[in-house]
Amino acid sequence: MIQTPYLLFLGDAPDQLAAKVAQGVRDWRPDNAVGQFRMEGCGADLGLPDMDLAAARAAGAKTLVIGVANRGGVISAAWKKVLVAALEEGFDLASGLHNRLRDEPDLLAVAEATGQALHDVRVPEVSYPIANGVKRAGKRVLTVGTDCSVGKMYTSLALDRAMRARGMTSTFRATGQTGILVTGDGVPLDAVVADFMAGSVEWLTPENDADHWDVIEGQGSLFHVSYSGVTMALMHGGQPDALILCHEPTRPHMRGLPDYAVPSLEALRDLALPVARIANPACVVAGVAVNTQAMDEQAARDYLAKLEDSMALPATDPYRFGAEALAEALGTM
Amino acid sequence: MIQTPYLLFLGDAPDQLAAKVAQGVRDWRPDNAVGQFRMEGCGADLGLPDMDLAAARAAGAKTLVIGVANRGGVISAAWKKVLVAALEEGFDLASGLHNRLRDEPDLLAVAEATGQALHDVRVPEVSYPIANGVKRAGKRVLTVGTDCSVGKMYTSLALDRAMRARGMTSTFRATGQTGILVTGDGVPLDAVVADFMAGSVEWLTPENDADHWDVIEGQGSLFHVSYSGVTMALMHGGQPDALILCHEPTRPHMRGLPDYAVPSLEALRDLALPVARIANPACVVAGVAVNTQAMDEQAARDYLAKLEDSMALPATDPYRFGAEALAEALGTM
Question: Which residues of chain A make contact with B260, given a CB cutoff of 8 A?
Fold first, then answer.
């Protein structure tokens, strides 16, 4: 568990896109973001107060989050100076970089000397159990996609927010690096050893109050041959009561797999439901979330209306039109 | 890849069952088994020549395989003496023990000094790629089970043997510890990191001659919530042309999951086939393998005959009645 709130380190990010993890924290957990730390030449700006380390400490920040991709895959000397100073000032460090903080001998040595924590969120920090399949109290909803990268994390975060706005109790459960940095907690599922995948999802979504919802961030797709095993572990470890089907209708083929067509939402429903019902016979499909980015507004509204009709389910683009229809559907369960 | 042939180390195994990995090598790859090494008090006997290290070296043995469960989870001082001597004599060591050879400082030091290899087959030795889903030449058959531990490895080994006996070219592809020690090669799939599971199966079953069959050892079950993600990676990484359904009809519930009923063979077929066809649209179910151990011979024959009739597939108990019917079905593909 990463200590919040954060000082968001933007380093020398060339542009806003390079800072998209920090942007995710800013958008979805603004209370976690005390300020931003920008270096000379930084081209990103989250609209947060610029702070140095001392000011951020005074404002209560506990962890410096590296919310930016680093250039050339190395942690530069310029970054190092800030990171070491942050440890010395009493910050923990958290990172979703491919190269790990703990593989940097100087950072490791200073962290050990100061007693501060280094969180590499691509690496599991917990010894997960083997899944036991025992039915847990509380409710769970899982986002499942026709493909990878169709908006499952965004849909999950938007749904969690919409459910809270309706007065429902819910918790977003992160299963990827960005989601973990946004919330400070979660399971980096793609880095978990095979035998413990489903168990890590059970661990992440424990027994809870009967009316509490876990909103579980999906990964991969049952139809994506590279990652379908990860998706399967979410279906069975999460034992969802409800699925939200996620889709991007203009994609020419499965991501990274030019020979594989993207399945229809109906095909996803027809495979995902029997798979989910192995773990939870009461599971239903509660709605559809579509990334309509490539359509003009009228085309998007027409597409969603047609889907609602043909699938008899609420359908929305959570980014463009909000997730309320999905939250409402879950509210009746 | 483990160097063959082997000297099979039975240590002080209390009984035959404790030596079941060694028994597997003896039964399925007799050419790999030069002899057995038994210590004082050993209660197991594979019917192989008893050899000391020098005799086994003279007979060509390259690796000492620890084909036995160790008592109390520790590698005893008595074992150590033999293992160190084996390294000094020029043997590699291979083990499927839970406690790893490389975690023993003395074995590690001697192995480094002598240049011999330590193979812990529960630990991946390869950096597997992410699966790319590209269609590969050659044919593949995968065993899938209604549950874990219903005879998938045994069925795969028996099928491989029956196919060779018919003059077909085939390779047994091990995905678990016992299978890896039997053949000297394979992927310890349950220990692979999630993102690389399907890629490790692609790596294990590469492009081959058009008429060559890989017989892929299945793991887990699509219906076993603890391990279904591992099974899924086999379905999609292996892109099988044919599935053999494996079943144990007298089991009261899924292994280790008292609240989960074992599915019917029809339910397995109806889920496994659409899943497999995502990676290989031409995939078919080629036959059924049943563990009839708990039935008398007439009951077993009646059960299999009924299955053949109701499922319109060849059905056999490969241990009791041979795998020829399954090999014959694949021979027509």
Answer: 133, 278
Task: Say which of B189, B232, B271 has its CB closest to residue A274.
Answer: B271
- Is the Cβ pair B229, A274 closer than 8 Å? no
Selected residues 67-126 of chain B with any CB under 8 Å from a CB in chain A: none
pTM of structure = 0.94
Q: Is B275 on the interface with A (CB under 8 A)?
A: yes
Three-state secondary structure along chain A? Answer: CCCCCEEEEEECCCCCHHHHHHHHHHHHCHHHEEEEEECCCCCCCCCCCECCHHHHHHCCCCEEEECCCCHHHCCCHHHHHHHHHHHHCCCEEEECCCCCHHHCHHHHHHHHHHCCCEEECCCCCCCCCCCCCCCCCCEEEEEEECCCCCCHHHHHHHHHHHHHHCCCEEEEECCCHHHHHHHCCCCCHHHCEHHHHHHHHHHHCCCCCCCEEEEECCCCCCCCCCCHHHHHHHHHHCCCCEEEEEECCCCCCECCECCCCCCCHHHHHHHHHHHHHHHCCCCEEEEEEECCCCCCHHHHHHHHHHHHHHHCCCEECHHHHCCHHHHHHHHCC
In this predicted model, what pLDDT tens digit does every residue of B176-187 receive, in sequence order?
999 999 999 999
Whether residue A311 lies within 8 A of chain B, CB to CB, comes out as no
- Report pLDDT for B18: 87
Of all residues in chain B, what percent carry a pLDDT higher than 90? 90
Q: Does pLDDT of A67 surpass 90?
A: no
Q: For residue A73, is pLDDT > 90?
A: no
Decide if pLDDT at A69 tops 80. no
Note the pLDDT of residue A30: 94
Residue B199 touches chain A, beta carbons under 8 Å: yes
Q: What is the distance in angstroms between the Cα of B231 and the nearest Cα belonging to chain A?
A: 7
